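Morning F.,

Quick status update on the modeling queue. The single chain you submitted on Monday has been processed. Sequence for confirmation:
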Amino acid sequence: MTVPTINYIAVVLATISSMIVGAVWYTPKVFGNYWMKLSGQTPSGNSKDAVRPIIVTVIVSFVTAWVLAGAADISFGFYGGSFLVNALVTGAILWAGFTAARFITHDQFDRRPWQLTVLNCAHELVTILIMALIIGVWPA
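Structure tokens below.
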């Protein structure tokens, strides 16, 4: 059994990119106000309320980037060709099969508006594709 080779610098950069995408995506002038309306959220006005979600997001984003890097390496080893293309295709497939599929399922049971599901799934697609781009241009 071969262990995937992973460029941890690319994983860290991909993790940081996730935070940047989220900060831009959910800013009030982009989709933040729309997201708050659809999700029923109201800003508390206390910046301390964001600390825990940000810490969780950094950890989860690191895990996502790490898994994506490993899966891209496995894909590249199996299919060959371009590491970048393998990373992007792997990211898109993992997003569709795990992220989008799970969001859609949970949002249906939670009776969330379909617009919220689309918004959050689109955010995750952009996040994962940017992560895949970063990982793809810096293979191990």
